[in-house]
Amino acid sequence: MMVSRDGVFGVLIGAAVGTLFLVPAHGSAQRGVIQTDPCSEAVIYLSPVDGLLRCAEQGYAPDQYSLGVMYANAVRVAEDDAEAVRWFRMAAEQGHTSAQYNLGLMYAEGKGVPEDDAEAVRWYRLAAEQGHAPARGALGVMYDNGNGVPEDDAEAVRWYRLSAEQGFAAAQYNLGVMYEHGNGVPEDDAEAVRWYRLSAAQGFASGQYNLGVMYGNGYGVPEDDAEAVRWYRLSAAQGFASGQYNLGVMYAQGDGIPEDDAEAVRWYRLAAEQGYAIAQFDLGVMYSRGEGVPEDDAEAVRWYRLAAEQRNALAQTNLGFMYAYGDGVPEDLVFAYMWFDLSVAQGNETARGNRDIIERMMTRGQIAEAQGRSREWIETHPQDGGN
């Protein structure tokens, strides 16, 4: 089965690269141990926070970092991004690599400090140059996207590779993306598969999904629908919407798995409930046809509308059709024209033919109203795209 490459591969996982990692707080071992150094790892305090705070205030970088993590993640303290930044900075200025990385993340996301990509890059680089794998991956993302530095695919690949070779799953995935697209390296599907597989084997959902796509399309590996299903399922089980949707497609078409409309609906629904537009559209189709669920035009309209509001041209076309015939909604040629018109603006030729047909049944006033509604809708819906 062929799955479109469009929108499947070039999604760079900056957020996944920038995860705040919790580490065990220093100063927690066995009760009653006496040490000369009050900030030794062997010291226990009645309150872990008290112990961390005391040692952090004395300049002990590991505990400063741990306090930053606690404030960032609301662990035993109230969440406070500004306080997290304060402690990360203290540790980072002493060369603590995880603190440098997390301080960079706070700047990149504008948490506790004004968003500042250049400052994020500065702290990522300090950690990356000391061999910190997540920081290397994050620095690759910054070069890849041109955030805080000039966009540079070759430099992105360099940092992704350093991180990926240390086993960092998100960087392995991103390096696979670069090979699949030929960005910063010669295009090489087999090499993309290699890095996707390493990422997928660590349970990285995006890597599992992309590996499924490679098997589904026969890119870099022999085409194998059953293997595609296996990787989609692993990704879907983690709640990854694209994996859930593609698994639904495999069930609907019987590719690599016995055809099962009810199971297709189940996976479409899970993706659709996450706002995945193409899954919302296909779920609407299933309700419209009564495949895997009882036929229900009103429910079909509901899902078409959710996808159409995300600029999904197919859903806009089908929603126009429902209004034109009064299926699941009161018949309304003005709304039908509006949805067809919006789909036409995205190049959908089926919608163009439908719009031309109903236009002959409308008055000039109705046409003008519909065109006005189209313009108003476009003005109120920024072009951030649908799935």
Question: What ranges have pLDDT less than 50 throughout 5 or more consecutive residues?
Answer: 1-36
Largest sheet: none
Structural class category: mainly alpha
Cα radius of gyration in angstroms: 26 Å
CATH topology (level 3) name of the largest domain: Serine Threonine Protein Phosphatase 5, Tetratricopeptide repeat
* Annotated CATH homologous superfamily of the largest domain: Tetratricopeptide repeat domain
User: Can you identify the CATH class of the largest domain?
Assistant: Mainly Alpha
User: Could you say how many structural domains there are in total?
Assistant: 2
The N- and C-terminal alpha carbons lie at a distance of 19 Å
How many helices in DSSP terms? 20
Beta-strand portion reads under 5%
Overall mean pLDDT stands at 89
Shape: globular
Number of extended strands: 0
The helix content, as a percent range, equals 55-70%
Order of helix and strand elements from N to C terminus: HHHHHHHHHHHHHHHHHHHH
Briefly say what this structure is:
The protein has 20 helices and no strands.
